Amino acid sequence: MKPLYQLTIKEASDLLEEKKISSLDLVESVFKRIDQVDEKVKAYLLLNRDGAIKSAKLSDERISRGKRIGRLDGIPISVKDLLCTKGIETTAASNILKGFIPSYNATVVEKLERAGAIIVGKTNLDAFAHGSSTENSDFQVTKNPWDLNRIPGGSSGGSAAAVAADMCLASIGTDTGGSIRQPASLCSVVGFKPSYGRVSRYGVIAMASSLDVVGPLAKTAEDASIMMDAISGPDDLDPTTIKENENFTNLKPISLKGLKFALPREFFAKGIDEDVKSVIMKAVDDIKGSGGEIVEISLPSVKYALSVYYIIQPAEVSSNLQRYDGVRYGHSAYRDRNDLKLEELYTNSRGQGFGKEAKRRIMLGTYVLSAGYYDAYYKKALKIRTLVKNDFDKAFDKSAGGADFVITPVSPTPAFKVGEKSNDPIQMYLSDIYTVPINPAGVPAISLPAGFVERVTSKLPVGMQVIGSFKDDKRLLEASIALQDLLKIDEKPNL
Amino acid sequence: MNSDLKTTIGLEIHIQLKTNRKMFCFCSNKGEDESPNTFVCPICLAMPGTLPVPNIDAIEKIIKLGLSLNCQIPEKSKFDRKHYFYPDLPKGYQISQYDMPFCKGGYLEVDGKKIRLNRIHLEEDAGKLIHDGERSIVDLNRAGTPLAEMVSEPDIDSPSQAKHFMQSIQKLVRALDVSLANMEQGHMRCDANISVTNGTKRSPIVEIKNLNSFRFVEKALTIEQSRLQDEFDSYSGKEGKVTRGFDSKSGVTYQLRSKEEAKDYRYFPEPDIPPFDLTDKSFIDIERLKNEIPMLPEQKMAVLAEVVGDDLAKAILKIDHKDATLGILGDGSIDKKGKLMFGKLIVNNKEVLNLSREQMVDLAKVLGEKVFPSNILRNIISEAVKSGDLISSINIADDKSSLTEAVDSVIKNNPEAVKKYLAGKKETIGFLIGQVMRELQGKADPGEVKSSLENKIGG
Fold first, then answer.
1. Burial class (CB in 10 A: 0-12, 13-18, 19+), B78
2. Which range (A9-18, B36-45, B116-125, B367-376) has the least confidence?
3. pLDDT number for residue B2
4. Please, what are the domains in chain B?
5. d(CA A148, nearest CA chain B) in Å
6. Is some CB atom of chain A closer than 8 A to the CB atom of B133?
7. Which residue of chain A comes nearest to B85, CA vs CA?
8. Per residue in A422-465, pLDDT tens?
9. How many independent structural domains does chain A possess?
10. Among A9, A240, A244, B264, which one has the highest count of C-beta atoms within 10 angstroms of its own C-beta?
11. CB of B314 within 8 A of CB of B303?
């Protein structure tokens, strides 16, 4: 039998159910793996060793009494350090929140704990989720398990690396412009961004409220659906959640035969790495081979999506970061000097606590919302956002011969080298060009391992993005299970 | 002195709404007198990741207020974020309403003048800063209290009218039960804008902040009015807006900002709260809210006065806190005389208020047809309150009153027999009983007739 840490949720759950392994075995195996490889990968900001072992024992007790809660009971997972965990330090990987211990759980964390899942630790991210490489973390740089000289993607880079390196069975990430899908793609794991509002945002430190989505990173699409089963649903604490519940229990693959997959021209034009493109085209051929229909479409407004995103997102960021003022929690300049005037308390606390990227976005956002510029930037961006949404509505309009799913690359290139783009924010922003347009539209999308490209020193993963229509999360996951069976990418990084 | 200058006043009134929970969290709204920071939670402390959950009760209350001020309730509304840094504002922005308030337009009549409203919008109150020597301490119990902000058009033309406007609003919100509206406790606060003009040139517009009593509103405005009139000749007409504070102890206003600072609140739509569809009955039922609005004091007075006259109407309003009379006056099955008699009765006999609605209707109908001596009426009512049966108390009283009449007339028509009885011939009572029984066609109890005669004749 393979080491326990290598198991999928499905496999581990079956073994727990059959009492062939205990949750404690599983959790200890995962910690052992973390101890072996995280020194190199640096995926975790914090380990919840004692809490996890305690929870594993409770889980084993339930199992022995035949009272297992569900398929996540006893399963070791990790959570991006952007989600508040009661009694456990939550930092958003930013100095301004260092030492902050919430008195409350994010709804997603609460739901996972109620499902019996065991949180082994909090994973690294770009501070406040601002970034695509996890290099913007104020604490450490996470490395790509496939090539330790390269970035894992971001901002959920810690989660993707932890899943890829078998340091947890699955993880929770957040996605504002690709922060689940892009690292999943660069690390060869499954990353699911649900429809906006499918999963509660309560207790998730806000980046851009109208774009933020919480979702799973997992080893398989089936595991992702098991996670969705636990975390999705309406929440009284988040008025933006979708009112209707969706059932993600026991999803089975659907037949690809007769399904219509659309390839948007704009996503395969110049700028894409040729090797990445051929991995995707190979996958598309496989889909065609198993009876899927492939059509080409145009999403004309998508070319404005990145611009729209870089207006709306910093605007909301600048607003959401106003609360970090050094008065109630987090880093406060008052601790060193209690003779500060109010104005100084603000500027010093924020000046010391926020990193470069947060400051850049605060300035951009403040500018586009300021009097005289609001109409020219923010208001216009909202209008174009509607056009982007309309493009997707049209693409999926069945009555007009629309597609079931849209297929695109996730990232124009494979993982880049640490430091390669960190001084060039524009190049960094462009690495999200295929994932960003999905968030303003609110539709669900998944990154599935599609293959590898060979580089001199290593082979690097490439993910394929499959996009569904709004609220069609369940069918997208069912199709993803089938696509994963078809593509069969199950290699592991060599650590 | 330019006393021929026209004065223009506009008011911005903040009204704390009386709800169980705060505007966007589940904290009780009753922390104003409690120890600092004991009525707070992660949401109103703006802890990371928390989200606002709008209080529908507050939305219903502001719409009720708008409906009773003739405002237009739009089909769509939304919240916006208003940004500024201050320690009493935990999120660094206030959730308020920018361009789509819950109530638009509207008016209120004050001293016979229609004062137009610009809007009423909903927002959250900030916390309180307590200044303690060199330090300032933050109390967030109040942070997140629902606050209606009413903005009038500059239609008010004197400080006393401004005061009357405030007083009418206070009466109104109390009648609607949407706010406690105690000014000294800050439930109702006011900023006033005042300027004077000679028709071609306008003085600077002075905004006076945080007026927290009716008296101060009038006083501060009066002071500013004379100052602006006195200095009018020195103005260029291009001064724009100035902000002044009012020191209630010394009764003077003082300059806060010489020139309106370029404030930029960077309003944008609150992304954490989806916009509201006010035509969606499953969310909010405007028709139901309309029906829930009680008649306001002025309206009640008008309705009552039309039937019973001004004086009686005033007297009724004073004692009839259940609006029983209004119910009777609005009942089509009762004639005008019955309504008037009912109104007169209720002023003299509070016990009427203890009757059930049905009993009151029956009573008013009977009063339209019959006149009862007041002592008998009093008995009827107290009997009916006890027994719950008004009709039989009327019947008994009816019988009793005809017995009394018969006894009176027999005594009057048979003075000889009465004299004999009084002289000691007690058997004469038998004759008198017979006379009464004849008059009542035998429909009386001889024993009762006897005691009634004995009581009346005495001796």
1. middle
2. B367-376
3. 55
4. 6-287 (no CATH), 295-388 (no CATH), 402-457 (1.10.10.410)
5. 32
6. no
7. A322
8. 888 888 888 899 999 999 999 999 999 999 999 988 999 999 99
9. 1
10. A9
11. no
| pLDDT, tens only, B226-284 | 999 999 999 998 888 888 888 888 888 888 865 555 579 999 999 999 999 999 999 99
- B456, B411 in Cβ contact below 8 A? yes
Confirm whether A84 is domain-assigned: yes
| Inter-residue contact A382 to B271 (CB < 8 Å) | no
pLDDT (tens digit per residue) in A341-380: 999 999 999 999 999 999 999 999 999 999 989 999 999 9
φ/ψ (deg, to 5) at A200: -60, 140
| CATH number of the domain that residue A237 is part of | 3.90.1300.10
Q: For residue B440, give the 3-state DSSP assignment.
A: coil
Spell out the alpha helix ranges (H) of B177-280. 214-230
The label of the residue with tokens 């999403």 reads: A299
Residue B206 C-alpha, separation from nearest chain A C-alpha, in angstroms: 23
Residue B257: predicted pLDDT:
66
Residue A179 bears catalytic tag: yes
Say if A288 falls within a structural domain: no
Average pLDDT for A462-473: 98
Q: Which helix (H) or strand (E) holds B431?
A: helix B428-439
Tell me whether residue A188 is one of the annotated catalytic residues: no
SS3 per-residue string spanning chain A: CCCHHHCCHHHHHHHHHCCCCCHHHHHHHHHHHHHHHHHHHCCEEEECHHHHHHHHHHHHHHHHCCCCCCCCCCCEEEEECCECECCECCCCCCHHHCCCCCCCCCHHHHHHHHCCCEEEEEECCCHHHCCCCCCCCCCCCCCECCECCECCCCCCHHHHHHHHCCCCCEEEEEECCCCCHHHHHHHCCEEEECCCCCECCCCECCCCCCCCEEEEEECCHHHHHHHHHHHECCECCECCCCCCCCCCCCCCCCCCCCCEEEEEHHHCCCCCCHHHHHHHHHHHHHHHHCCCEEEEECCHHHHHHHHHHHHHHHHHHHHHHHHCCCCCCCCCHHHCCCCCCHHHHHHHHHHHHCCHHHHHHHHHHHHHHCCCCCHHHHHHHHHHHHHHHHHHHHHCCHHHCCCCEEEEECCCCCCCECCCCCCCHHHHHHCCCCCCCHHHHCCCEEEEEEEEEECCCCEEEEEEEEECCCCCHHHHHHHHHHHHHHHCCCCCCCC
- Is the Cβ–Cβ distance between A122 and A167 less than 8 Å? no
**CA-to-CA dists, residue A27 to A78, A119, A184, angstroms:** 11, 10, 23
Catalytic: which of A94, A155, A159, A171?
A155
Q: Which of B51, B53, B268 is the closest to A369 by Cβ?
A: B268
Query: Can you give the residue range of the structural domain that contains A99?
Result: 4-251
B272–chain A Cβ distance below 8 A for any pair = yes
For residue range B405-444, list pLDDT tens digits in order: 888 888 888 888 888 888 888 888 888 888 888 887 777 7
C-alpha A9/C-alpha A92 separation (Å) is: 26
A351, part of any domain: no
- A8 pLDDT band, cuts 50/70/90, is very high
CA of A94, closest CA in chain B: separation in Å?
12
Report the b/e string of A16-37 with b at 16+ CB within 10 A: beeeebbbbbbbbbbbebbeeb
Give residue-wise pLDDT tens across range B160-203.
999 999 999 999 999 999 999 999 999 999 999 999 999 999 99
Q: What kind and span of H or E run contains B392?
A: helix B390-413
- In a domain, residue A26? The reply is yes
Ranges A293-302, A433-442, B318-327, B354-363: which has the least confidence: B318-327
